Amino acid sequence: MKNLTLLGGISPATFLRDYWHKKPLLIRQAIPGFKPLLERTALFELAAREDVESRLITQNQQDWQMEHGPQTSLPPLTQKQWTLLVQGVNLHDDAVDALLRQFRFIPDSRLDDLMISYATDGGGVGPHFDSYDVFLLQAHGQRRWRIGAQKDLTLVEGKPLKILKNFKHEEEFVLEPGDMLYLPPHYAHDGIAIGECMTYSIGFRAPAFQELGEAFLQFMADSIDLPGRYADPDLTPAKNPAELQTPMVERIAEELNKMQFTADDITIFLGQYLSEPKASVFFDPVDKPLTPARFVQAAKKRGVKLARKTQMLYRQKNVFINGESFAVGREDKILLAALANDRALSGDAVAKASVDVLEAFQVWYEDGWLSLDA
Ligand code: SIN
Ligand code: CO
Asked: Are residues 371 and 310 in the same domain?
């Protein structure tokens, strides 16, 4: 892969080798001349919506308050030291979605969302660390970041936010619009607005193994098949009626040990799990849909594209979309893999699709998972 201005003139391979999960990287003018993609008022409107996750953080000296959205009344712009965090803005705006997708040198399975923070002078969320990698792109105004590699990650107790008890910074930078700071997980940081500012956080996802394990067992519960029922034709009279007898425990163990997890089980589970939209995501079904015949005709002419909110992944013969999975043949697989990677297919490509794929497209179109291209 070629060198990217976004990464300060190094290639994604070099970035991943030298910085990713390892050390911070400050990139001056990662996006030269960057202008905010959303006006302040548009951001506030998003924060007032039911289907958008947001938090309002107000601060009085070292005392922090947090309120979850929808935000119906924000503090006045003249009030200092407040921050509005709006999660998943990429789900609601094409330009923000396109910005997030500039980071696709990291696979979709690891990409989470783009959060926008708005702060008045002196605003910030306090010294803290995150469990995930993050790129902090300055979008408007200036923010002073103080960062440090401290091992002591003790938090102040009884606060609504994670605040580091003993924050000591080693470096300090003032970011201007277009500048970007990459931080690996667990790197201590504190960003304070210098005047009004907006910062875009490109965040990643790294599921906890416990969370994956619980979800996997639930998934397996729906697919296990253990025919038969316990029987004991050799039962002998009970001396201690309350005691669980060895033959029963051994016999049940023998049956339960027949449950095996195959690589396919894990692939299908993971594809469904990672492509599942967050609980707050709602798709907008198309308004007056075309008839199936008309849709296919139009799709073959104009092509199709995935909705911003659609998450599509694949592996080998398995294709996953918004938490659903299906196995496909070779030809369909090539076409669907192209759709997942490019998030769009030309009319010519759609014209080569099988009847099954066209039927799936038509259902996805009605559900708002995919639309006709412009
Ligand atoms: C912010 O943008 O205000 C906070 C982002 C962060 O520190 O993770
Ligand atoms: Co942070």
From this structure: yes
- For 253: left if phi > 0, alpha if psi spans -120 to 50, otherwise beta; the answer is alpha
Angle between helices 355-367 and 330-342 (to 10 degrees): 30
Instruction: Verify cis geometry, omega within 30 degrees of 0, for the bond prior to 70.
Output: yes
CB of 141 sitting under 6 A from ligand 1 = no
Residues 6+ apart with CB under 8 A from 102: 6
Range of the domain at 98: 3-204
Residue 238 maps to a domain: no
Residue 61 pLDDT level (bands cut at 50, 70, 90): confident
The reply to whether ligand 1 has any atom less than 6 angstroms from the CB of 201 is yes
User: Does 199 contact ligand 1 (Cβ within 6 A)?
Assistant: yes
State residue 29 phi and psi, 5-degree precision: 50, 50
* Shared-domain flag, residues 52 and 176: yes
Question: How many separate domains does the chain show?
Answer: 2
Q: How far is the CA of 125 from the centre of ligand 2 (A)?
A: 8
Within this chain, do residues 166 and 86 fall inside the same structural domain, yes or no? yes
Give the distance (Å) from ligand 1 centre to CA of residue 230.
Answer: 57
- Exposure of 21 in the CB half-sphere (CA atoms within 13 A): 7
Query: Would the CB of 184 count as within 6 Å of ligand 1?
Result: no
Mean pLDDT, residues 51-73 taken together: 93
Q: Identify whether 250 is part of a domain.
A: no
